[in-house]
From TrEMBL:
The lineage of its organism: Bacteria, Pseudomonadati, Pseudomonadota, Alphaproteobacteria, Parvularculales. The modification N5-methylglutamine is found at residue 196. This is Peptide chain release factor 2. The gene is prfB. It is found in: Cytoplasm. The keyword Cytoplasm applies.
Length: 315
């Protein structure tokens, strides 16, 4: 039923864009005949916006994976480097929250471990919205930042790394069985950024799946029962995502597993000094506006990576 509703929405959106195109073309002919240059400029701007929306709709039509329409968990982990890397992880955290908000998605904070001086060591958010996983899945990998560190009194240039790991929230239609005997469940006291206690009970839950080494944790609720349920859901989702990666690896004959947080494994570089540039190392897409990218302007990077991925699957 949900898939049918989504398909109906896609058809309605495409029909509306076709109507909008026809209307704008008719208005353009009238404006040109009347010599109304201001109206022509407005129509050109409207057509450019329509082109962007049509391009996004075209990519969304390609999101046909069994979990692409699902919500998405996004994990962010700071690499080695202390405060500088923690601050970079926090910048990425903010970037994905901004992207989600700009696309009308809801964001739930599942877990956050603050850095000792600034930023975060790790965080997990749940992005809720149609095709959230389909778009965000191409963001998994290591992200590299080059800048003059605000934490360095000598104003030296620093390189920092953080990893992003995206996996789909799974629904009742997908069955993933997890043996409790394979898991270690720990409880601990939930805390906020900088070590400040959110509450004084051991309500946070961490589950370690010993056969795979996967670790998930949740501290978003004051109830240990609710955190435990969310953590089990996250673990099932991670195991499902691992299965999706295994299938893709077999199909593409290339590794698609988690990599070390460091040199040689990054998917995108964000350079703030000595020049300004964001470059995706997989697709070659660049932006001269890192501030806009870090404010959530990621569609060009995601779209190119999705198109490349779909093209690779079709090859």
């Amino acid at each position: 039923m949900q898939e049918r509703t989504h398909l109906e929405n896609q058809i309605a959106a495409l029909t509306a864009m076709q109507t909008e195109l026809d209307d704008n073309l008719e208005l353009a002919e009238m404006a040109e005949a009347e010599g109304d240059d201001a109206a022509v400029d407005d129509i050109q701007a409207a057509l450019a916006d329509l082109k962007d929306r049509a391009g996004r709709a075209e990519l969304e039509a390609l999101l046909s994976g069994e979990a692409d329409a699902n919500n998405a968990f996004v994990e962010i982990h700071a690499g080695a480097g202390g405060t500088e890397s923690n601050d970079w992880a926090n910048m990425l955290y903010r970037m994905y929250v901004r992207w989600a908000q700009q696309h009308g998605h809801k964001v739930d904070i599942i877990e956050e471990q603050g850095g000792e001086e600034a930023g975060i060591k790790s965080a997990t958010i749940l992005v809720k919205g149609i095709n959230a996983y389909g778009w965000l899945k191409v963001e998994s990998g290591v992200h590299r930042l080059v800048r003059i560190s605000p934490y360095d009194s000598n104003a030296r240039r620093h390189t920092s790394f953080s990893s992003v790991w995206v996996y789909p929230e799974i629904d009742d239609n997908i069955e993933i069985e997890v043996a409790e005997s394979d898991c270690r469940v720990d409880t601990f006291r939930a805390s906020g950024a900088g070590g400040q206690h959110v509450n004084t009970t051991d309500s946070a839950v961490r589950i370690t799946h010993e056969p795979t080494g996967i670790v998930v944790q949740c501290q978003s609720e004051r109830s240990q029962h609710k955190n435990r349920a969310t953590a089990w859901n996250m673990l099932r989702a991670r195991l499902y995502e691992m299965e999706l990666q295994r299938r893709e690896e077999e199909a593409n004959a290339q590794a698609a597993s988690k990599t070390d947080i460091g040199w040689g494994h990054q998917i995108r570089s964000y350079v703030l000094q000595p020049y300004q540039m964001v470059k995706d190392l997989r697709t070659g897409v660049e932006s001269p506006s890192p501030d806009a990218v870090l404010d959530g302007d990621l569609d060009a990077f995601m779209g190119a990576a999705l198109a490349q991925r779909v093209g690779g699957e079709d090859a």
